[in-house]
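Hey,

Quick one before I head out. I ran the complex with prephenic acid overnight. Inputs first:
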Amino acid sequence: MTAQTTTNGNGEPSTKRPRIEGDNVKSHKMAYLGPPGTYGQMAAAAFQSCYDAPIELIPCPSISAIWETSATFHVLPLENTIHGGVTETLDCLLSNLNFSSHSSTSNLVREKKHRRIIADLALPISHVLVVRKGVKKEDIKWIRSHEQALGQSSKFIKTHYSTARLKTYPSTAGAAISLLNPTSSDLEEGEGAALCSKAAAKLYEDQLDVLYEGTQGISNNFTRFILLSSSSAISPPAPIRHVCSPSQTAFYTLPSAKEIIPFFQSSRIRNIHSRPSPISSDPIPQNGKTTQDVWVNREERFPTLYLVEVDIAIEGNDIDQTQSSIGEEKGWYLGKAEWRVTDEQITAL
Ligand SMILES: O=C(O)C(=O)C[C@]1(C(=O)O)C=C[C@@H](O)C=C1
């Protein structure tokens, strides 16, 4: 997107938001994890159903590709009941901390910094094990899926396919489709299976057989998806069919563990996700020491970034304001889940 300089009637710079390429496009874009049949697509459809404004769903080949895409909205899986935080999403959100603040940064970098979490939903997740038509249970030598689906089904896999090779794929539906176009190494390894949604299996029912349903083992398995809105681009429309979250939470990305407690002293921390910080090329200061073992702090050798979620719906409390302004200033604030798609809305889709 390219911002253009605008001027008012007096030739002075306009105070209005500059015109951005795409302003004339009628529909807003919502990027999600494709191809058709992913859980990400279901989440995107649920968020989309809350708006009256035209919103075009844009399938992306991976979670990182969603993050790299310039769109008004981004739909990302955040955490799962069984397998916990979605690492690729956490790495994307935390990468906001590493962006350079120099003015030479690209529009996309600036846009990523201005993305804010605005809503969430909990999608019920139930996987099926699919094979190419005619393949027998006992012939399966490998199982392919998104890392999350493999993790959520680990008990099932251990019980039924303890020797199967596990192959990760950027999405569950993509893994199912890959069975229809096996690579030469797939063929060398023998017959394979994929874990995907029932919806994906249905899309290819003439080519795929479902061997098991519910490989995650429990019925109350959910993945929480978040919706981000790019406030720096086209002004996002407002949702019209939604419920304000009864338990509103704000998200912050923090560069070290020591920031957590002082920053959130009087608020209720709901969740802390941590991920290794990308390796820096800067040499670690040795402070003149020459011995082999110079590390004192854990963070020296295990640099870690944190995504912290805190309660903001505490009555008579202005923590939100204070934290938000410090967070904004330091580039830590990532927005708040102010509204939610209800379970009833999701079921009705
Ligand atoms: O692969 C998909 O279908 C996705 O939408 C991704 C994803 C995830 O990243 O957690 C979403 C929900 C399920 O937990 C499994 C996979």
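Residues 33, 38-40, 77, 80, 86, 125, 146, 148-149, 171-173, 223 surround prephenic acid (CB under 6 Å).

Talk tomorrow,
K.
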